[in-house]
Design brief:
single chain; 221 residues; mainly beta; six-stranded antiparallel sheet; three-stranded antiparallel sheet; 14% helix
Length: 221
């Protein structure tokens, strides 16, 4: 029984999709997504030992063509570096929107945003979440044409430190990937205005609005 549980935990844990949606507006095409990530076994051990992991979001916007292969009209990439900081005992998520890492691997990417988290669960939630990620400008989507998005999310082993990559290809637990094909809405939807903030009112104004007269003040002595 315990052996079976250990084998189950060691298998690959694909991201669990909680949200994955496209929004087309007059400004462009945006993606919002939320995944649940559950690394186990050697993956979690590597994180705790301070080995950084790199998660890549990749999206290609294609215009469908019946007479030829689909044409790529836009695309976007974001790489997230997840690492444990032993001195502070905190988790850091760094974000880069540059593709590739050059000769330095993931460490060679320019990271523009850093977030610190107290727990691994909080850090994984940040890695598996994106809101209104711009995939294309409005002018890149041809009016009247059909478009689709080829989306992928993965733990990129090629960005790990070189000595650490040896032998990982045969370990199933390191395979954390997701691929989806999403249809792009044919027309832009108007963006809803943000709800108005409630105005602060005095007790006298609230009483007047409710049809009650404000209480008279007692004369001072």
């Amino acid at each position: 029984m315990l052996v079976g549980l250990a084998l189950a935990l060691a298998r690959a844990q694909p991201p669990q999709v909680q949200q994955l949606a496209l929004q087309r507006t007059s400004d462009g095409l945006f993606l919002s997504a939320r995944f649940e990530l559950s690394p186990h076994g050697a993956v979690q051990d590597a994180l705790i030992k301070g080995v950084p992991l790199y998660f890549v979001w990749q999206a290609d916007v294609l215009r469908e063509r019946w007479y030829w292969t689909n044409k790529r009209v836009a695309g976007a990439t974001r790489t997230l570096r997840l690492a444990y900081q032993p001195l502070t005992r905190r988790w850091r998520v760094s974000i880069s929107t540059e593709a590739g890492g050059g000769t330095g691997g993931g460490a060679g990417l320019p990271y523009a945003l850093h977030q610190n988290h107290d727990t691994l669960e909080e850090a994984l939630a940040a890695v598996g979440r994106v809101s209104r990620w711009r995939l294309a400008d409005a002018g890149q989507l041809e009016p009247g044409a059909s478009h689709l998005v080829e989306f992928g999310f993965r733990l990129d082993l090629s960005l790990l430190p070189r000595p650490f990559q040896i032998g990982l290809g045969n370990q199933e637990e390191w395979s954390m990937a997701l691929e989806r094909e999403l249809g792009v809405p044919e027309a832009a939807t108007p963006e809803l205005p943000a709800p108005a903030e409630p105005r602060a009112t005095s007790p006298a104004a609230e009483a007047k609005a409710g049809g009650e007269a404000p209480a008279a003040e007692s004369p001072s002595r």
